[in-house]
Amino acid sequence: MSDLRNYISQVKKSGELKTIKTKVTTKYEIAGITAKVDGSNAVLFENIKESNFRLVANLVGTRKRFALAVGGTEDNIHKKVITAIKKSKRPKIVSTGKFMENKSNNAFSMPIVRHFEKESGPFITSSIAYAKNPETGKQNSSFHRMMPIDKTHFSIRMVEGRHLHRCFVDAKEHGEDLKIAITVGVHPAISIAGAYQAEWGKDEINIANSLLGGKLTLAKLPSTGLNVPSGAEIVMEGKILRDKTHPEWMVEMLQTYDHKRIQPVFELENLFFRNNPIFHDVLSGYSEHRLLMGMPIESKLNGELKSSFSQTRQVSMTNGGCNWLHAVVQIKKENSTDPKKIIKKTFDSHRSLKQVTVVDDDIDPNNAESVEYAMATRFQADKDLVIMKNLRGSSLDPSSDQKNLQTAKIGIDATRSFSKRPEGFELAKIPKIDKIKLTKYFK
C-alpha cells in the first residue's frame, strides 16, 4: 500500500506514534503540542474541536522515520533517494480514487491550524499542488502553503521562477486561470518527492512512485483532468485566478517570520475526502519541515559531490543551519587544493547555502562538537577561509539582502594541513575501550 494510513500503521508498529484522544483546538494548541513533541514521535489527534477530521503531525520528524518513508535505513537514505531520482517511473492510472468517498465545497470542514501568534492566519502546510507544464503537457507536483481567505478561496505561496509559478505566469499571459489540484494527507514518500526541485519538465510524482517500489497509483479528477495519488486523504481541485491577489506572511524554515507578500488566490471548486479523513499538518521551522525540505537537497549534494570528487565521503545539511543554509562535507583529502574546489562545487549545487565546512574523514559531519573541534585544531583563518560577496542566496535568511536575493558566503577548510606533521592531528585512542562495560565495575 502506498497511502498515508499504511505509513501511520508502520510508525505505530515501531512504537513512535502518540495518539491524543483529548479534545484539542486548531488555534495554537495543536501547534504547541507538536512543538513540545518536536520530532521524537509522530502525533495523531483524534478529537478536534473545529472539525470531524483527524490530524497527524511529525510524520517524518526524525531521520529514522524519514528512512522508513523511503523504504530504507538511516545509512542508505541518500542512496534510496538518488536511485529513485535516476530511475523514476510513471505510476499507473486507476479509474477512481479513495478520496471520492465524500465531496464538499467548504474548505473550513478541514482542521486548518493556526500555528504562530503573528502569522497572517491559519495555514495548510502540507499541501502539494499538481499542474500541467505548458510546454510538455506533463504534470508537476510541488509544495505550496495555503492560507484560507473564505470557505472557497486561499492565498497560495509560490516562489518566483519555480515550476508552479512558471505555469501560472504562462496561463496568465494567455489570459487564463491556471487549473490545479491540491492533495493533503499522502504517503510521505510523495511529500519528499514533492519537496525535491526537479528539472523543468520533470514530474516529481514519478520519483515518489520509484520510492514506493512502483506501487503508487493515480486517479483522474473530474473537473481539471489532473491525476493525483488515488490514496490521498483530501483532494481539492480548482484554479489559481489570474487577476486576484491577497497579502500574507508566515513562519519559515528558520523559525522566523517571512516578510509580507502579495500572493495569487486559489479558488476551490471541489473538495474530496475519504471516510474518517486524516489531515496532515507540518509545523513550520521544526524538525519535520526542515527534514522534508532539507533531506532531498542533502541527497542531491551527496550524489553530485561523490560523482565529481571521489574524495567525498558524506555531506550533511546541519541542524544548526536549519538543514538548509549550512553544509559539512567529509572527505579523505588527497591534495591540498581539494577543500576549496569542493567548497565551490557545494555552493554551486545548492544556491541557498551560505556556509560550507570541509572536514577530514575522522570527523563526524553530523556532530556539531566534532566539527567545531576540527575548526579549533585544523583551521587557520588567514589561509583556510574563503569569503564570497554578493552571491545568490536564500530568500528566507533575514540577515541577507532579501529584496535582491544576495548574501555573503563563507567556506571553511577545517582539514589537516599536509605541511604539518601528521602525528599532531591524530586523535588519540585507548586500546580495547569498546570492550569495556561499565556495569562490570559499577554495581
Structure, described:
- The protein is an alpha+beta fold and 443 residues long.
- The protein folds into two domains: 4-287, Pnp Oxidase, Chain A; 309-425, 3-Layer(aba) Sandwich (UbiD C-terminal domain-like).
- Helix content is 25%, strand content 27%.
- It is built from eleven helices and 20 strands.
- It has helices at residues 4-13, 29-37, 63-69, 77-86, 163-173, 188-195, 204-211, 287-308, 338-349, 368-378, 381-384, and strands at 17-20, 42-45, 54-57, 92-94, 102-104, 128-132, 139-143, 146-150, 153-156, 178-184, 217-220, 227-229, 234-248, 261-273, 278-281, 312-317, 326-331, 355-360, 385-392, 406-414.
- Strands 5, 6, 7, 8, 9, 10, 13 and 14 form an eight-stranded antiparallel β-sheet that branches. Strands 16-17-18-20-19 form a five-stranded mixed β-sheet. It has a four-stranded mixed β-sheet with strand order 1-2-3-15, sandwiched between helices.
- The protein is globular, with a radius of gyration of 23 Å.
- The termini are far apart.
Nutshell version of this structure?
By secondary structure, this protein is of the alpha+beta class.
